Amino acid sequence: MYYFIVNPNSRSGKGALIWKELRRTLRQKHISYKAVFTGYRGHAVKLAASVTAKASPEHPVYLIAVGGDGTIQEVLSGVKDLSCIYFGYIPTGSGNDFCRSMQLPQDPHEALDCILKRKHIASMDVPVISIKGRKSHFAISCGIGFDAAVCHEVSVTPMKKILNRVGLGKLVYLFVALKQLLFLKPVPVTLRMDEERIYPFHKVYFAAVMNQKYEGGGFKFCPDASPSDGYLDVIVVDGLSKLKVLFCLPTAFWGKHTQFTGIHIFRCKKVEVFSTVPLAVHKDGESAGIQETFSVSIEKEPVKIILP
Ligand SMILES: Nc1ncnc2c1ncn2[C@@H]1O[C@H](COP(=O)(O)OP(=O)(O)OP(=O)(O)O)[C@@H](O)[C@H]1O
């Protein structure tokens, strides 16, 4: 039995239409499934918790998230014991960084086909972010500063709806990033890794903790990040002029930004981030509020994910 958690509101409402087509396929193929729908922000956490409440490693649940990248982190956050699920993902969002990094089909119909075939099961690290004592999971990345401010504005801008309507949803990140950069003021941020290595930075634009290579709609910020190596990759952008950031940012689409002075990349199992002023924080592109500090580690147990 497959359990689908569907965000009908993803890609500005297209998620609901795509789900109807997928449902037709499931019915035609006589697949046994249950589908539940998210009605508000954070709902997928509760739905995933209730769907997996009785699951065990002996009786696992095939849990499929249907939505954008934001839905994935909510679904994973609702699962208490990751060893009790097989995770599948059908993209109906606008950014699709998860598919890009995991090399999953970007087309929802192909993604469903891959899930039903269950050809390849792999392990994926699941990072845990702790903010003010509250823990939750994410799949792709979390960050503080510029990238989080971009995510926050992307989620509220009417431009996203308009660009999604004409199939150019990904461009919204680029426009918003340029606008945010104009008004941004870099601040001192310190990172402590694995309880011992301390790195103070003085003029930080942003710091991102990445489980996967891509975030922000295709920026390959940590080109060597791997979701199956048991490590987190961390990028810090510090001390560059705005003009240089502007020049450097497009090169990140190809992962070529790492050659610039002021771009620092680290690898660790745990990182604590301390900012001197409250800044926007995101996880998998969803706002996690305005924070001064948070920490990230990796769950001991990886999740089993269905791949093509
Ligand atoms: N029924 C709903 N109405 C409004 N918001 C919802 C609903 N269900 C889920 N959400 C919220 O919508 C937000 C965005 O969802 P999601 O990431 O799945 O889609 P997206 O933004 O279109 O895709 P992407 O993140 O790839 O750009 C999440 O914060 C989620 O909690």
UniProtKB/TrEMBL annotation:
<dbReference type="InterPro" id="IPR017438">
    <property type="entry name" value="ATP-NAD_kinase_N"/>
</dbReference>
<keyword id="KW-0418">Kinase</keyword>
<dbReference type="GO" id="GO:0016301">
    <property type="term" value="F:kinase activity"/>
</dbReference>
<keyword id="KW-0547">Nucleotide-binding</keyword>
<dbReference type="Pfam" id="PF19279">
    <property type="entry name" value="YegS_C"/>
</dbReference>
<comment type="similarity">
    <text>Belongs to the diacylglycerol/lipid kinase family.</text>
</comment>
<dbReference type="InterPro" id="IPR005218">
    <property type="entry name" value="Diacylglycerol/lipid_kinase"/>
</dbReference>
<keyword id="KW-1208">Phospholipid metabolism</keyword>
<feature type="domain" description="DAGKc">
    <location>
        <begin position="1"/>
        <end position="133"/>
    </location>
</feature>
<keyword id="KW-0067">ATP-binding</keyword>
<dbReference type="InterPro" id="IPR016064">
    <property type="entry name" value="NAD/diacylglycerol_kinase_sf"/>
</dbReference>
<keyword id="KW-0808">Transferase</keyword>
<dbReference type="InterPro" id="IPR045540">
    <property type="entry name" value="YegS/DAGK_C"/>
</dbReference>
<dbReference type="InterPro" id="IPR001206">
    <property type="entry name" value="Diacylglycerol_kinase_cat_dom"/>
</dbReference>
<keyword id="KW-0594">Phospholipid biosynthesis</keyword>
<dbReference type="Pfam" id="PF00781">
    <property type="entry name" value="DAGK_cat"/>
</dbReference>
<protein>
    <submittedName>
        <fullName>Diacylglycerol kinase family protein</fullName>
    </submittedName>
</protein>
<keyword id="KW-0444">Lipid biosynthesis</keyword>
<keyword id="KW-0443">Lipid metabolism</keyword>
<dbReference type="InterPro" id="IPR050187">
    <property type="entry name" value="Lipid_Phosphate_FormReg"/>
</dbReference>
